[in-house]
Amino acid sequence: MKIVWIGGDADWNQYNSGAANAEFLYLNYLIKQPEITQIDFIDLPFPNPDTHQYPPLIRPMNGIIIHLPRYKIRYKSVFTHLKSRVDFKGRMQLSLLSFILWFKFRGEIDIAKLEGKKIGTLTASPMYLAIVEPYISQLHRQAADYIKQLNPDIIHVLMELFAPIAAILKQENDIPNVICAMEDWERQLADLVPNSIQYAAIDSCFDLSKWTGNHLDWFDKICPVSPHIQNYMARIGYPLSKIQEILPSPVDLTLIKPVDKIEARKKLGLPLNKRIILTVGRFMERKHYQDLIEILPSLPEDVILYMKISSSSSDITVYKEEKIFKRKLKEKKVANRVIIDKRKLKYEEMKYVYSACDIAVYPFVGEAFGMCAVETIACEKPLILYNSGNFPSFIKENGFLVEPSDLETLKEKILYLLENPEIAKEMGKKGKPIAKKFDIKLLGSRLINIYHELIKK
Description:
457 residues; alpha/beta; Rossmann fold; 2 domains; globular
């Protein structure tokens, strides 16, 4: 079986965003199965100002062939479409960007040269620039033409942003496909300034999600990543009969597992004599890290916050949120009680991060899945989660749900777990059956069965 997997970030040497980690786990499972003869990974362009440098066009990694096609887009049609969605300030920014790109490229943007570059306060985002056209876009067509040469048996699409590529290949070559839906675009819009460039880009993603739902005959299997995303898709018009198969993000229980707390702290260079609250993720508004900073001054002096910040391919808004957060630290005078760890760790090293803490708190709103919660559960640590997004599905007797921004209850639950370590330990152990449901061996086997079913049809 030859698989083409269409994704967005082939940097699997470090712990990354939830979607990238899911890709890493699924692909490494699939390539080891005897019926899989070849996997071609098509790396579509995401902006990554920090780390992403365009490597050679084709390169092997762990037995998987990574392809980075050189896309070119005619930017004038893209900007015309974007300008209709933004305010005066946004139109001026786009005009400036358009002039700079015209001066540099004279008509067509070579995405390989543009990747991740900053122009003023804008981050060059080729993926968003290319998909905000009326569908099907220039990028989708070029990617489909490239994939045809690979003669795959099945197409796996990580996000519905890339669904039009699968639609082209279904119509023109009758290649079966699996579409994974991993984002609640409607929820993301709630965090953005209306009529801004960022809002216009995400609004276009939302439109594409709805477009996919209106062309279901072109898609063989659409798999939401969670019940939360399934509900979102039903709300915007997808028939439930078409989105019944939920395919969650997996965890490798042989790599993410409990280790001794003292050993873990020594490994990471964390203090041995402190009680540690852990949170893991990226700097984004919907993560509500400021809620933890609000209550930290009222917690005992020996309690510190350890923040493991994962890398991402997100744009300039991430850096803006980090600056806002650090200003909050100074305002509350708790900078000496917060450890911000931005080290690039391998996936298997994350077991030390989870095992080093006493409790984990994720005050996130609208989380599509919540990989960090599953990994915390796998390491037998008690959780406190906001009652939002997909988080309620992870809590049984292994932690607490708190209503978003109910800081008094959040503080109360944190203190309860910190002051009752034996109870906290027992609660952590009770999460083990939950983690087993997301084991890569179980979910990987399900995915292969889906492939076989579609190829037989």
